[in-house]
Amino acid sequence: MDYSVGLDIGTTKIVVIVGRKNKNGKIEILGVGREHSLGVHNGVVNNVAKTIDSIKKAVAKAEQSTGLKIEKVTVGIAGKHIRSLQHSDYIMRKNPDAYIDEDDISALKKQVEKLVMLPGEQIIHVLPQEFKVDSDGDIKTPMGMHGTRLEANFHVVVGQIGNIKNIIRCVEEAGLKMESLTLEPLASAEAVLTPDEKEAGVAIIDIGGGTTDIAIFKDNVIKHTCVIPYGGGIITEDIKTGCSIIERYAEKIKVKFGSAIPAEEKDSTFVTIPGLHGRSDKEISLKSLAQIINARVEEILDMVNTEFKAYGTHEQKKKLIGGIVLTGGGSNLKNLRQLTNFYLGFDSRIGYANEHISNDKNNALKSPEYATAIGLLMESIKINEHHKREELRHEETHNNVENTIEKEKTEAAENNTSDSTESVEDNNKEDKKKSKKKLLRFYPSIGSEIWENLKKFFYEDETP
């Protein structure tokens, strides 16, 4: 059975999703494994042993639900060490008479991958934005065109080598092979954004447990990415500190009673938290709870607004007509969408990834917290489809070469046979001539009439 796997190594949870694409182009989920993440902080692995153990448990649950052996996975990466930059580069094509194909674009991307980064950094993604062929610019897809110089603008995503190697080690020591490492906001965008939104201009804000990931699209091209090192986890920490309760209760009241807008809550509404080891219960005002949440959410949105300004969303050409799509577990916070609309000045919606899924009848994967994992699964499916196309292309090329060789052998054999036949005929003809000449020389004394008749006979026989 052909199947693909996405692995989301998050700060609060590790999710493994197994699936495949059905004949209608939708994704059929075969199984899901979820485990609490113990070795990741703010999107970065800080305890390798615990992370490996959590990955193994999540994989075991996914294998148990599917009955399949999981070997290869597409893994997400985030964290405050991620940064991005813009870069332009070009290549001179060796054969300008041939049309531009995937090999030319791959050669250009490989050249960009040779860029010298800061010490300790490694390129994760090289994402083409616009192409230029000779003097013609603003080309989205140069495939099939002719030209000598192929140039492009790239969005380059970079991360710290140490953090990347930690993720790779955790995956490999969990008994898995990593087929791709994908920036998490790109995976989430794949799962929740529509083509129309990407064309109009849209920003996805993925609020996870340890980070808030941002990706901006315009004209169906990735324009800006960044990772803010704050997420839902720090809001829980604020509640824990501000209300003097343990983390488990802080997370529960945030999810069940939390609100991003204090004005929407009443002063007279309270939630009761059980006391510790015989101590009296604690009552917390929902308005006070909302005020704690609001302070941290506004700080995160202020950082998001700084990234928007860095990209230039205030410019007419870069305006986000498609607005904002909120996703990730943190987007479930009550009244967050309304606060985002007010604070950032763009219309927003909550992004659900289950619209791509064909068999989620119980809406088990409807929550935005699964957006990254589903996006990684979609990326894994794309990679497997690409490998299949490459295998078919190599097989066709191999068959064409074999057919050409076989044809050349056949033609060579036919030519050799023809040459041999002509050589034998020529030899026979030559022998016949020699015999005739010997015969003519053998009878010099025959009478002139007979002699003439014989000559006539023999020479007529020689006429073709």
UniProtKB/TrEMBL annotation:
<dbReference type="InterPro" id="IPR003494">
    <property type="entry name" value="SHS2_FtsA"/>
</dbReference>
<dbReference type="GO" id="GO:0043093">
    <property type="term" value="P:FtsZ-dependent cytokinesis"/>
</dbReference>
<dbReference type="GO" id="GO:0009898">
    <property type="term" value="C:cytoplasmic side of plasma membrane"/>
</dbReference>
<keyword id="KW-1003">Cell membrane</keyword>
<keyword id="KW-0131">Cell cycle</keyword>
<protein>
    <recommendedName>
        <fullName>Cell division protein FtsA</fullName>
    </recommendedName>
</protein>
<keyword id="KW-0132">Cell division</keyword>
<dbReference type="InterPro" id="IPR020823">
    <property type="entry name" value="Cell_div_FtsA"/>
</dbReference>
<comment type="subunit">
    <text>Self-interacts. Interacts with FtsZ.</text>
</comment>
<dbReference type="Pfam" id="PF02491">
    <property type="entry name" value="SHS2_FTSA"/>
</dbReference>
<dbReference type="GO" id="GO:0032153">
    <property type="term" value="C:cell division site"/>
</dbReference>
<dbReference type="InterPro" id="IPR043129">
    <property type="entry name" value="ATPase_NBD"/>
</dbReference>
<dbReference type="InterPro" id="IPR050696">
    <property type="entry name" value="FtsA/MreB"/>
</dbReference>
<feature type="region of interest" description="Disordered">
    <location>
        <begin position="388"/>
        <end position="436"/>
    </location>
</feature>
<comment type="function">
    <text>Cell division protein that is involved in the assembly of the Z ring. May serve as a membrane anchor for the Z ring.</text>
</comment>
<feature type="domain" description="SHS2">
    <location>
        <begin position="4"/>
        <end position="192"/>
    </location>
</feature>
<keyword id="KW-0472">Membrane</keyword>
<comment type="similarity">
    <text>Belongs to the FtsA/MreB family.</text>
</comment>
<dbReference type="Pfam" id="PF14450">
    <property type="entry name" value="FtsA"/>
</dbReference>
<feature type="compositionally biased region" description="Basic and acidic residues">
    <location>
        <begin position="388"/>
        <end position="412"/>
    </location>
</feature>
